[in-house]
Amino acid sequence: MTKTSIDLSRRKALQAAAGLSGVVAGAVSLSALAATGAKGQAKGGAGAQAGTLAPVTDLAPRPPMGWNSWNSFAGTINEEQCLETAAIMAEKLLPFGYDVFTVDIQWYEPDATSYSYNPNPVPALDAHARLQPAPNRFPSAREGQGFAPLAAKVHALGLKFGIHVMRGIARHAVKLDLPIEGTPYTARDIADTSSVCPWNPDMYGVDMTRPGAQEYYDGLFRMYASWGVDFIKMDDMSRPYDAHAPEIEAAAKAIARCGRPMVLSLSPGETPVPRGGHVRQHAQMWRISDDFWDDWGLLAAQFTRLENWNMWMGPGSWPDADMLPLGRLALGDRDTKFTPDEQATLMTLWSIARSPLIMGGDLRYLDAATLALLTNPEVLGVNQNSTANAPHFLEDGLKVWTARDERGFAIYLALFNLAPEAREVSVPLDRVGLVGSFVLRDLWERQDRGDVKGAVSAQLPGHGAKLYKLTPLV
């Protein structure tokens, strides 16, 4: 069967750092420290603080953590591989908070083979134009059971169950003109055949001005609820954002009506920063870039994006820098191209900026070094519990972020070297809004480094990072 080939990232890879419009948060204010009576106090710094936004919902109070099949299986994962991977995840990652297991794209495609798409797909469908798990890949889905049996087994492991879905309605359902459940309308009545995904041939958009359109989405999410789905990664949504906004709203409305809490994650980016207010009203996660893979240029570009999105980050509202391409990738063909130092930079940036942590590598080949990188409890604590996260701009090639711990007492300090050569850096504490004396702890090494006053100095490897906790001396 002829396939249409695309690059590994599903879409054209990013070539340069982003130039997003929007506000970049300034120096963090740690005035809460003064109320503790600590000797190490913050100067009255000004600037936007993440975490000051009122939550829209109680879904995703912290950045979601989990695993997704795309980086390691493309669109090919089957039921046996899901269960094997979920068991490993429950044993090795769940104790550290990774609890969302997600089946990525084309679970409905009987002939999925790689990172390419069938130009004329014949997906599995029910009688009401809704995609179903391909029974040759997911045998438990036969007889109309959908993902319910697999979700039940994933839930039994203590995990949440997530699926990837595409915006719109299946082109094959439109060809067959299948009826929309509970309405006199059909797939052709609601499809917008001019609205197509530029990189995937499976779907048409839905024209939300037509009768039956919202009913289609309502029925779709009722089905997902009956399966036991907890997490929806909805693709071809965030770009172009304004064109797809009616379907973003429709999906959010359908989730609210379906009777089951579901986190909604929108993909791909770049989501435009000026639409931050709209997107956080309708989703709990949204991608800030195109697909992220193990390339230093892509990682360097995420700094600017996370800086620009920082003002919109807070409980229930998580700008998503994408999955963690670590360990074994790409259908087992290779291991990550990131060096160990770049891997530490990746985890440090995602943690201090509070991006969701979704592992993408094949857990069946999870090595000790990658496991240690993913499960450092002190680093994960920054991702899950820090507040007042903010970037600072001190000099070229050096990136600096600060945050507070959950109590508002101690300070986190992340230092990043974007240059390929190692460098010695000294960060004056008053430049990041701090005065006083502190106990310095290296979170990656999980060791105290003595007392500091005035500045923090560090030797940073090329493309490397340090993450510290500064506790005021009292």
From TrEMBL:
Pfam families named in the record = Melibiase_2, Melibiase_C
Instruction: Give the UniProt keywords, A-Z.
Output: Disulfide bond, Glycosidase, Hydrolase, Signal
Q: Which CDD domains match?
A: GH27 (cd14792)
Question: Which GO terms fall under molecular function for this chain's record?
Answer: hydrolase activity
Enzyme Commission designation: 3.2.1.22
- Family of the protein in this entry: Belongs to the glycosyl hydrolase 27 family.
Tell me the protein's name. Answer: Alpha-galactosidase
